[in-house]
């Protein structure tokens, strides 16, 4: 009972000031609203990518699937512009009249048929983009995601026409949008990122700064003169962090489901379990930071560095591993837990940006979780003591 009372005291103290209330609970919701509104055009003017399409032949048979896809991605997220010749499309791409160009060469329908029926080499579709333009890079990545779903649709079509059972459908069906509803949704794509950003904020700021501030200011010492011990104190503080994260995530759920109609898959046990796991990983890292810092001002600086690196190199808002970056930075990004946590959540919504294996989603974050817990437990007495 005293643990709950102490946790309640921590929470009331946190929301007493505007900064604590705003950055923990309001800012994630505001950020999500702004990002979705800007990227998906929910404001007064829509935002879409301009895609040039050059078809060298009339698509028939299995090739007709490509026509269906082009119809389904227009007008959002792509405004499709058809071209008669390659030179004109490349000129428009060069001069920023389109963001990405797609060429479906002669023989595509026949190549698809050979690939599907006789298991020969896959058909090739040419995609052109400008690496120096952010819009072009993003359009290219979206197209890659869409064509991943095309592969699944081809599998379905094959099973239907040949009278076979497409066995992978059951495994992938929940993570893939049905063929008649294929549409890239920024509200879905950004939802996992903002969820993790809210948890990351609590982990990198509230957790280490709160623990160190209470120790330095002598709050621990006053608490220990009562019947409250270090275990009760830490349990109450951890409960306060969990409640803060739960409240922040719940607010995002309300906004996502009511205002932006996020994929119902966010209500499934799998998605929520991944959020719980992500919370454990990020909280443990925040606790580890408190083990290294003697002053809360130092923890604030280190927490800010971790926060920015985990968020941006972790690919919360952009697929950074698909950008042209030095290999060393890519390897560094691959070592971050957030790279896998956010992609794992997106995979539950049907997005496969980096094509990580299921085992990879858990391996790297688990290493961070284990190391962080060991470091914190080893320094527990020093972190919970008073100065």
Short overview:
This protein is mainly alpha-helical and 387 residues long.
> What is the multimeric organization of the chains shown?
single chain
Enumerate the spans where pLDDT stays under 50 for 5 or more consecutive residues: 42-46, 164-182
Please give the largest β-sheet.
4 strands, mixed
Number of separate domains: 2
The helix-strand sequence is HHEHEHEHEHHHHHHHHHHH
**N- to C-terminal separation?**
27 Å
Determine the structural class based on helices, strands and strand pairing.
Answer: mainly alpha
SS element count, helices: 16
Q: Count all strands and give the number.
A: 4
Mean pLDDT: 81
Rg of Cα set: 25 Å
Task: Report the sheet-strand fraction.
Answer: 5-15%
User: Could you say which overall geometry the principal axes of the C-alpha atoms support?
Assistant: elongated
Strand order of the biggest β-sheet: 2-1-3-4
Amount of helix: 55-70%
Write up this protein:
The chain is mostly helical. It has two domains: 2-39 and 186-384, no CATH class; 49-181, abc type-2 transporter like fold (3-Layer(aba) Sandwich), CATH 3.40.1710. It contains 16 helices and four strands. It has helices at residues 2-16, 18-40, 64-72, 86-94, 108-118, 134-162, 168-172, 186-216, 219-224, 230-258, 269-292, 296-313, 327-334, 337-348, 358-378, 380-384, and strands at 49-55, 78-83, 100-104, 126-129. Strands 2-1-3-4 form a four-stranded mixed β-sheet. Strand 1, helix 3 and strand 2 (78-83) form a beta-alpha-beta unit. Helix 1 (2-16) packs across helix 10 (230-258). It starts with a helix and ends with a helix.
